[in-house]
């Protein structure tokens, strides 16, 4: 996962005598947006929608689909959006999916290649995401063959889950959601969009969906459009929609 600098909102501007929010600079150039909304902080499922930006306005594209998220719901994460203090904060091992606006990182899968325009990583048996917050590789995808066994000791995120966990298909295809990309210790790690086990099976912090929904996303995503991923409870979405220039659901 690459590191990036967090940026805040552009300055407020005057419009017809009142303060009007401009689009947050961190995603003002984005022309694709994946939006997941949930019924509240403790909900373990939600609805995913996709949008494209035409000028300054977002337009829905594709069909809405059900997703599952963290078994404990969601909590404010560390991404592109300004830090929020009203609500739970994402921590390592809390079972919550990070809320906010995030860059979409590398796509990955069990096959060596996949039909997507996104940067793609064909996973090997030696690939891990390090979820040990005392490790210098915390929240990074690494190859055990390159960094050595000690570097991944204690990591629970072996990426070839089919080989390490009795044929598990969760990471057959997916992509990185760039939460905590600078690796702040204890702030949460290894957040992905991946395949679900069932419509009633929540995750430990990721966003999961059907094979068909993921295939459509990977075919749709275009890195030149700087896509972003948004996850918010509905009340927070309504509160922040104008300030963050989010689509009308």
Secondary-structure topology with pairs:
Blueprint: E1 13-15, E2 18-20, E3 32-38, E4 45-54, E5 57-60, E6 65-68, E7 73-76, E8 96-109, E9 120-122, E10 127-129, E11 141-143, H1 144-147, E12 157-158, H2 161-164, E13 173-177, E14 192-195, E15 207-209, H3 211-220, E16 228-233, H4 234-240
Parallel strand pairs: 3-16, 7-8, 8-9, 14-15
Antiparallel strand pairs: 1-2, 3-4, 4-5, 4-6, 8-13, 8-16, 10-11, 10-12, 13-14
Structure report:
By secondary structure, the chain is mostly beta strands. It contains four helices and 16 strands. The strands form three sheets. Strands 3, 4, 5, 6, 7, 8, 9, 13, 14, 15 and 16 form an eleven-stranded mixed β-sheet that branches. A hairpin with a 2-residue loop joins strand 1 and strand 2. The longest helix has 10 residues.
The total strand number stands at 16
The succession of helices and strands, N to C, reads EEEEEEEEEEEHEHEEEHEH
Let me know the largest β-sheet. Answer: 11 strands, mixed
Beta percentage is 25-35%
Oligomeric state: single chain
Question: What's the total helix number?
Answer: 4
Residues in helices, as a percent range: 10-25%
Rg, please?
18 Å
- Which spans of ≥5 residues are poorly predicted at pLDDT below 50? 1-22
Q: Give the distance, in angstroms, between the N- and C-terminal Cα atoms.
A: 30 Å
Shape: globular
Mean pLDDT, all residues: 91
Structural class: mainly beta
In short:
The protein is mainly β.
Question: How would you describe this structure in keywords?
Answer:
mainly beta, 11-stranded mixed beta sheet, disordered N terminus, 31% strand, 3-stranded antiparallel beta sheet, 249 residues
């Amino acid at each position: 996962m690459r590191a990036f600098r967090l940026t805040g909102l552009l300055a407020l501007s005057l419009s017809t005598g009142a303060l009007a929010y401009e689009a947050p600079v961190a995603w003002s150039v984005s022309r694709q947006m994946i939006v997941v909304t949930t019924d509240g902080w403790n909900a373990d499922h939600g609805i995913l929608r996709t949008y494209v930006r035409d000028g300054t306005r977002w337009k829905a594209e594709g069909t809405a689909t059900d997703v599952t998220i963290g078994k404990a719901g969601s909590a404010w994460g560390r991404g592109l959006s300004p830090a929020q203090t009203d609500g739970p904060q994402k921590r390592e091992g809390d079972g919550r999916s990070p809320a906010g606006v995030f860059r979409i990182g590398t796509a990955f899968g069990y096959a060596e290649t996949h039909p997507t325009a996104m940067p793609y990583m064909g996973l090997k048996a030696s690939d891990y995401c390090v979820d040990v917050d005392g490790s210098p590789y915390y929240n990074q995808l690494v190859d055990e063959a390159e960094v050595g066994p000690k570097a991944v000791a204690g990591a629970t995120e072996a990426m070839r889950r089919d080989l390490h966990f009795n044929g598990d298909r969760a990471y057959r295809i997916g992509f990185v959601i760039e939460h905590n990309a600078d690796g702040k210790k204890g702030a949460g790690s290894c957040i992905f969009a991946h395949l679900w086990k069932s419509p009633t099976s929540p995750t430990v912090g990721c966003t999961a969906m059907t094979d068909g929904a993921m295939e459509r996303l990977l075919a749709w995503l275009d890195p030149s459009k700087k896509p972003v991923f948004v996850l918010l409870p509905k009340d927070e979405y309504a509160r922040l929609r104008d300030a963050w220039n989010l689509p009308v659901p």
